[in-house]
Design a protein that fits this description.
The complex is a heterodimer of chains A (139) and B (141).
Chain A lengths: L1 E7 L2 H4 L6 H16 L3 E6 L7 E6 L2 E6 L9 E8 L3 H9 L8 E6 L12 H17 L1
Antiparallel strand pairs in A: 1-5, 1-6, 2-5, 3-4
Chain B lengths: L1 E8 L13 H16 L3 E6 L7 E4 L6 E4 L11 E6 L3 H9 L7 E7 L8 H6 L3 H7 L6
Antiparallel strand pairs in B: 1-5, 1-6, 2-5, 3-4
Classes of the chains: A alpha+beta (139), B alpha+beta (141).
């Protein structure tokens, strides 16, 4: 099963402050362990929300709001996608991550096609598989 | 440049474990996904199970503390994401605006950090990260 590991934003990341060399080195080591264990599928950092935007949908119309989004406590600063055997394994990995005080990280299980059961009709399944095959061909 | 489109469905913070989107909504979204794919902008996409099946870990004083979902204090949570490769933030906004979103949904657009965005000394400290991403099977543009 796959988990998305969401590292929450804080004042530093929202101010565009980049991690220092010490943190980068520690995170690099942790990432290396994840890769060696075959756990890490993806990992990215995001620019501060001041460089982003939000789109709202109402009655077929959209409204665009430019960042930053200071009012939310749920902003994401970066993420990993991990391949693990259980939620507990994901928690165990996360506990070893070199985060300092105040960091909050959220673990969320990723939907797999088989999670949908009969709702995911053969037509939809085929469409999904085609989509993923085309993506990996392209990249 | 790469952008993440983060789908934030209001109400999903309270969804029960095992909650699923209905087939109609999935079918509509698949059409949109195909349009992203056909335009050659789609790099990755995933949907997430409700937070009631997840966990949060905080690191106060460097010590990990695990809290199982749902998260009572959360006013909004992520429902899924798309990773797209486009030429500008405006193009990312255009794509997000075409999504068959409902009134309870918000799409947040966030630029992904590229290696070249970092100053030289940070790039040096993070040397090997791109290679790591390649090894991990990460799809690169």
């Amino acid at each position: 099963m796959r988990f998305m590991v969401l590292v929450k934003a804080d004042k530093q990341s929202e101010a565009g402050v980049l991690p220092d060399k010490k943190i980068l080195a520690a995170m690099g080591k942790f990432n290396e362990e994840l890769v060696k264990a075959g756990v890490m599928l993806a990992g990215e950092g995001l620019h501060a929300s001041s460089k982003g935007a939000r789109v709202r949908f109402q009655d077929g119309k959209t409204t665009v709001i430019d960042g930053p989004f200071a009012e939310t406590k749920e902003l994401v600063a970066g993420f990993w996608i991990w391949q693990v055997k259980s939620k507990q394994e994901a928690i165990d990995w996360l506990k070893r991550a070199p985060f300092g005080g105040g960091t909050e990280v959220e673990l969320r299980q990723v939907f797999e096609a088989e999670d949908f059961g009969a709702e995911f009709t053969p037509e939809l399944r085929e469409q999904e598989e085609r989509l993923r095959a085309q993506i990996s061909e392209r990249t | 440049m790469r952008f993440m489109m983060l789908m934030i469905p209001k109400g999903y913070e309270q969804a029960a474990p095992g909650a699923m989107p209905d087939a109609d909504a999935v079918a509509k979204m698949m059409k949109y996904n195909e349009s992203l794919q056909k335009a050659g902008v789609l790099l990755a996409l995933d949907g997430l199970h409700p937070p009631s099946m997840g966990a949060r870990v905080t690191f106060a004083g460097g010590k990990p503390k695990v809290t199982d979902g749902p998260f009572a204090e959360a006013k909004e949570v992520l429902g899924g994401y798309w990773m797209i490769q486009v030429k500008s933030k405006e193009e990312a906004i255009e794509w997000a605006s075409r999504c068959p979103g409902s009134a309870n949904e918000i799409i947040e657009i966030r630029q992904v950090q590229e290696f070249s965005d970092f100053p030289a000394d940070v790039q040096k400290a993070a040397a090997g990260f791109e290679e790591m991403q390649a090894q991990s099977g990460q799809r690169r543009p």
